[in-house]
Amino acid sequence: MIVNCGAVLVQWRPFSRMKTVCLASTSATADQLRQQLDNLHKEADSTRAKANNARLRLMRLSEAVEKLRRQAAVSVQTGKENDARELLFQKKKVMQAMEKLKSRIELFDELAAKLNEAISMKESLLISNMALDLEVSEIKAPTPIRIVSPTEGSQNDTDDSQHLYMNNLEFPEDQELQDFSDSQVDIHAENELKNHEESFSEKKSTGADSVQSPREISTFEEFMDHLDQQLKKIEEELETFLRFSNLLLGSKEKPEYSKVQHAIEILEGVRHTRERFTFEPLLTVA
Q1: What contacts 110, CB < 8 A, 6 or more positions away?
Q2: 33 burial class (0-12, 13-18, 19+ CB within 10 angstroms)?
Q3: Burial level of 150, CB count in 10 A (0-12/13-18/19+)?
Q4: CB atoms closer than 10 angstroms to residue 62
Q5: Domain map of the chain by residue range?
Q6: N vs C: which end of the chain shows fewer Cβ within 10 Å?
Q7: Which of 32-41, 104-113, 163-172 has the lowest mean pLDDT?
Q8: Strand 12-14 and strand 140-142: pairing?
């Protein structure tokens, strides 16, 4: 019951707050994907350069082995057996170094192949992220209700006009329930988006100090750890993207988007790559 109230004005107007937030989040994710792609390309170039340097060193060692073999043969012919034994011993050491270098080259080649796979998956994710068009319906929200208090002289007239006006207003119960449900979904989605943006800002601020630059890596083990961190970031971003997509699509009676399914397949591929990367026997350098 409304007592001592004047005219009640109710207006409806649409707004697109959710759609703006979605576009902003998509743009931020795309920028991060581009940055990660640049880092992966730099690491792949560095790995290929190390493999090429190892091949050049292997060629020089092969030439040294051939030279030692010839010198040993000459020493045997001239009767210098002690010199020949020393040369053959040096040749044996060089050949052992060549075997280790061959194993290292094979490992570099395998790492380069894994990096190419990661780059391919990251590019597919970026394309899917840019092409994904989430159709979020615009949610309507009422403007604040204005209540005007009447004066003493017009109290009776105001009550009569208000009574007639309220009788003419029709608010279907189903429409009110639907609007309330949509508003709850809107609030929940906004909270999830806000939490995602805050966590992304924290990760971005702390990640810059924790991730090593490729130039700071001095050992092969550090290089492997750095690559594993990059793949872990890819996996976390894919999981966040899928949670966000399920949140927006879960309350809508629509079939599952094929691009979301493609993102799930990419996530499984990243996990499989990390497992192989962690437990591959060839990753241990002899």
Answers
A1: 280, 282
A2: buried
A3: middle
A4: 13
A5: 10-47+118-146+171-200+213-283
A6: N
A7: 163-172
A8: antiparallel
